[in-house]
Amino acid sequence: MVGCHPDLAVETRGLTRRFGELLAVDHLDLLVPQGMVFGLLGRNGAGKTTTIKMLTTLLAPTEGTARIAGFDIGTQPARVRRLVGYVPQLLSADGALTALENLLVFARLYHIPRAQRRTRIDAALASVGLQDAAHKLVRDFSGGMIRRLEIVQSMLHRPAVLFLDEPTIGLDPVARHGIWEQLRNLIAQEGTTLFLTTHDMEEADELCGQVAIMHRGTVVVHGTPEELKARLGAHANLDDVFVAYSAATEETEEGALRDVQRTRRTARRLG
Ligand SMILES: Nc1ncnc2c1ncn2[C@@H]1O[C@H](COP(=O)(O)OP(=O)(O)OP(=O)(O)O)[C@@H](O)[C@H]1O
């Protein structure tokens, strides 16, 4: 069955998620064209990861709908799962397995035909310079190598939309630039739409064709990085835009602590 707007990679209508009293995502309306690199920005706890979890069918919305390449996350979740890749904020690769074993597990999970598995895996490892590390245990990898592995793993089934939750968190500048280059190569080769979150405004400016700034579960502004910077004046950068639109507000003590702990845990494990 063909979806409604196959030219849109992501379309949300009133997408909402509550956790008890907390409105984590508040009637979100987003349109992301296919082939776009889209950045969802916002302070800790703004609702970015919750949005991604709903769009990848890992979390059910409380209200509203969303479509991925025209397929509904609520009524066509199996179709959606085949169309998306997801690199979560926390480590997803298994440290006790080699890079090759991690990719083989994933290839089986996604029903990649047995005859194609090794060819696709070898090409994937080579595309991110990990061919010589295929038989090494992932727990001995550097943070940058793990991220590269996770990115190609999440793309092994050739998803139409790749969701990346803070892809370069905890990485040094050289590794970070390496990941950007790998992502650009993958987009050029596969035409994949990227939907990423980041707290790194240089990363958003470098990679994203469009960004949206989320605050307390809702988008407060969106546009190209150039448009948003121009609104603030000739010398504004994306950090200025972020600060201007993510008004300083009190976070709940509990939420803020949890968010910081989680971010540091990820950074420590990747460092
Ligand atoms: N499973 C959960 N149960 C209860 N509250 C949750 C749960 N997951 C997220 N939250 C809360 O929902 C809000 C949005 O969280 P979310 O992780 O989506 O934010 P974020 O924008 O991704 O933050 P960060 O930049 O720190 O990753 C936060 O207040 C968070 O504490």
UniProtKB/TrEMBL annotation:
SUPFAM superfamilies associated with the record: P-loop containing nucleoside triphosphate hydrolases
Pfam entry (one): ABC_tran
Keywords: Antibiotic resistance, ATP-binding, Nucleotide-binding, Transport
Domain ABC transporter positions: 10-241
GO molecular function, one term: ATP binding
Top-rank lineage group of the source organism: Bacteria
Topology relative to the membrane: Peripheral membrane protein
N-terminal signal peptide: none
Compartments in which it is found: Cell membrane
Cited InterPro entries: AAA+_ATPase, ABC_transporter-like_ATP-bd, ABC_transporter-like_CS, ABC_transporter_ATP-binding, P-loop_NTPase
Protein family membership: Belongs to the ABC transporter superfamily.
Record-given protein name: ATP-binding cassette domain-containing protein
The species this protein was found in: Dactylosporangium maewongense
